[in-house]
Amino acid sequence: MGLFNRLIAKVRGTSAASALDWKEIEVELLASDLGPHLVAELLEAAKKMRGEDAEAAIKEILRSKLSQRERALIAGGEQKVILVVGVNGTGKTTSVAKLAASLKSSGNSVILGAADTFRAAAVAQLQTWGERINVEVVSGKEGAEPAAVAFDSAKRASEEKCDYLIVDTAGRLHNKNDLMAELGKVKRVVEKVLPITEVLLVIDGTTGQNGLAQAKIFSEAVDVTGIIVTKLDGSARGGVALAIESALDIPIKFIGTGEGQGDFAAFEPDSYIDGLLA
Ligand SMILES: Nc1nc2c(ncn2[C@@H]2O[C@H](COP(=O)(O)OP(=O)(O)O)[C@@H](O)[C@H]2O)c(=O)[nH]1
Ligand SMILES: [Mg+2]
Hints:
binds magnesium ion, 8 strands, about 45% helix, binds guanosine-5'-diphosphate
């Protein structure tokens, strides 16, 4: 059932759901990860709506909460460098590979930097993806400094004059200072070689308001230019996408909808909102 069906039924006075009191509807909406501010605003507006207009009016409110910023990748110069950041397990490495495959299929040359050097498995995971999608992966020796690997990958990208370098990073989130220091260092060394055009933050769409908290921390630590929301397949309600955009005004650029290479798409606001109401 769509997230807003009960709310709409309540306003219209149709179906059994109209007997629910506003509190019950509030509880249900809060469980959807939209966040308390947006839920309060929606309920206040709904109480003033007239029956037939409910669906269109709710859509209008939701639409107005989404960012107006450009959702395409930043054009940049000849060589684009994308830093991919986020908490461990959100889907960074998978998203790096999916994005690389997508850019490659539209005719771009791509190199990947495996700068999550804290776990050997993370490097191997990206290398496996690289073989699968036929993209070069620059990695360092085990235990290498992330910044050193990032630097090597930028040098390689510069030599090869590839269209895109995508750097996978580690998602250690001990505290904001550590995070800033680590990502700042990666950024500085890469920028000795090529300017970073984009910083994409990966958020797991199933983590609810915690995803919003992560987005806040990362956007304070680095200049996040776009977000990838993953795991919007399965039972994820995905309300967090709206919560993030309305709170931070950082555009969601891509979504992940599965573990496979093709389970990746540009974020489309209209179909997202239709999905929430479907
Ligand atoms: N269902 C689903 N699983 C995903 C998606 N993106 C990543 N995963 C899985 O989530 C797990 C963690 O992904 P990984 O890329 O290693 O995360 P990282 O630690 O941030 O690099 C892996 O098992 C992925 O296959 C997605 O969009 N949908
Ligand atoms: Mg990873």
